[in-house]
Specification:
The structure is a single chain. With 383 residues, the chain is an alpha/beta fold. The longest helix is centred in the middle third of the chain and has 17 residues, at 159-175. Helices cover 30% and strands 27% of the residues. Strands 1, 4, 5, 7, 8, 9, 10 and 11 form an 8-stranded mixed sheet that branches. The chain has 3 domains: 21-158, no CATH class; 176-244, no CATH class; 251-377, Glutaredoxin, CATH 3.40.30. The protein is built from 12 helices and 18 strands.
């Protein structure tokens, strides 16, 4: 019998009360149990959380007792293992097959559960497995490590599970690259169909940069009150406040003077806030554009860097500033990386905001985009 494993990624509803837990039961046909099976909650900014499952021989299933915070705050949850006798295997990560009513076959490695039950059950049947080598996705490129990806067929998935799998697939396969109005219509439909869906809220939060403020407010209003008060509902509200309230400034350390300064140095001008780092190659490619804007608009727009480098990485950042002859201010997050990323919702870098005079308004901009660059070039101060 082949040895393989089901790795299941799931979202659970926040119907849990504080301090309670849900049980995840994973039942697989034909599975040879591993010594350990780990469930990892992948967090947005904080360190990931982990939980070990317990094997029940009588039930032929793994059981995980997952606290509400584990489920509510995770962007997604996955199961994984390694084989002690095969160190060349980095890990085992499966795909699951499901047939839709339209006779479409979907292969997914992530699932959304938001059913209000004490025990969440998943039942799957093994199909086959692949061996993946030199994978950029699994970070094994150029190593001797391999990844096993077994494929499973889901058995009798619930209607809720079916619906959320189809929603996620439809977005990432059909709608993600379509015009904004079509993406908005898709989200409007799925949220209206399931206003208390945790997975829909997480999906909207994940795509928050791709909607206007007005669209985000409209989509937020479709959710139930309980969902708006949930963990990711509050995170979405915090993101919206970045754009609807006055800019919330922060005092950080100037990389050169070592003195504390606010991000906005002159409230009478615009401020172009750019998050960057020494190790970020795309950020380095932004430097010529920033130099051009700084030269053209220095009387109207203050450019300011905030580097996400750790204190140990700061020497490399300061070397970059000197090498590139950067003339605008550069501030460091120091040991406050997660705090600053969370406050300003920095997902990936480079990441930029345009802050209006008197901190009256904030907009996300990308100067690599021709329209955003032209907008900044045309800025003028009020007479």
């Amino acid at each position: 019998m082949k040895t393989f494993l089901s790795t299941i990624v799931l979202f659970c509803s926040s119907l849990l009360l504080h301090g309670q837990e849900r049980v995840l039961k994973v039942s697989l046909e034909g599975v040879v149990p591993y010594d350990t099976l780990k469930c990892t909650a992948v967090m947005e900014y904080a360190d990931n959380l982990e939980c070990l499952g317990k094997w029940n021989t009588h039930a032929n299933s793994w059981y995980f007792h997952l606290p509400d915070t584990f489920l509510e705050q995770a962007q997604y949850i996955r199961l994984s293992t390694t084989q002690k006798d095969k160190p060349e295997i980095k890990g085992i990560y499966p795909f699951f097959r499901i047939m839709t009513a339209r006779d479409t076959t979907l292969y997914m490695n992530s699932f959304s559960f938001f059913e209000n039950v004490d025990t969440l059950s998943l039942h799957a049947e093994y199909l086959y497995q692949d061996t993946v080598r030199n994978s950029m996705y699994y970070r094994t490129f150029g190593t001797d490590k391999i990844v096993i990806t077994p494929h499973f067929n889901l058995i009798s998935p619930s209607s809720e599970l079916m619906r959320t799998i189809i929603n996620a697939n439809d977005f990432y396969v059909k709608y993600r690259d379509l015009p904004l109005e079509q993406r908005f219509a898709f989200f409007h439909r799925i949220i209206s169909d399931a206003p208390d869906s945790h997975s829909n809220m997480v999906l909207l939060y994940d795509q928050r940069d791709n909607f206007t403020l007005e669209q985000l407010l409209s989509l937020r209003a479709l959710f139930s009150e309980a969902r708006r008060r949930s963990y990711y509902g509050k995170k979405l509200d915090a993101y919206i406040r970045l754009y609807s309230d006055r800019f919330s400034d922060t005092r950080l350390i100037n990389c050169l003077t070592k003195q504390e300064e606010t991000i906005v140095a002159d409230e009478n001008k615009y401020t172009l806030l750019v998050f960057s780092a020494s190790w970020c190659a795309p950020c380095h490619k932004l430097i010529p554009l920033l130099k051009e804007l700084n030269e053209k608009k220095k009387s109207v727009v203050d450019v300011v860097y905030v580097t996400l480098d750790t204190p140990e990485q700061l020497p490399a950042w300061n070397q970059l500033l000197a090498k590139e002859n950067i003339s605008w201010r550069s501030l460091s997050v120091g040991g406050r990386l997660n705090e600053i990323r969370e406050k300003y919702k920095v997902r990936a870098i480079p990441y930029s905001y345009l802050i209006y005079p008197q901190k009256s308004k904030t907009e996300k901009v990308d100067i690599r985009d021709a329209d955003d660059k032209l907008k900044i070039e045309n800025l003028k101060l009020a007479e």
